[in-house]
Design a protein that fits this description.
- The chain is built from 2 helices and 5 strands; from the N terminus they run E-H-E-E-E-E-H.
- It has 81 residues and is of the alpha+beta class.
- The model has no long low-confidence stretch (mean pLDDT 75).
- The strands form 2 sheets. It has a 3-stranded antiparallel sheet with strand order 1-5-4.
- Helices cover 16% and strands 22% of the residues.
- A hairpin with a 5-residue loop joins strand 2 and strand 3.
């Protein structure tokens, strides 16, 4: 789900928890998993949590630009069996 960072800060993060088990809110751009959906960065720019993978529209745009274009790697033959 792509949303502005200001809205994301009110969503619960599955990775952040206090020592007593309480959940914490999203940190937005301060988190390593936050991905910006647009070229510009800032409070008003939209983004998404990288833990949830790329949204469909962003993934298609990345494929069109050449990212994620390589196919799955084949495993080498097992010499032991």
């Amino acid at each position: 789900m792509i949303l502005p960072e200001k809205e994301a800060r009110f969503k619960v993060c599955p990775l952040l928890a206090t020592p007593d088990g309480k959940m914490r809110f999203c940190q937005g751009a301060q988190c390593m998993m936050w991905r910006f959906a647009e070229a510009q960065e800032g409070d008003e720019s939209a983004g998404f949590c990288g833990l949830a993978c790329a949204p469909v529209a962003t993934a298609k745009k990345a494929q069109a630009m050449g990212f994620m274009a390589s196919g799955a790697k084949k495993e080498p033959e097992n010499p032991f069996g």
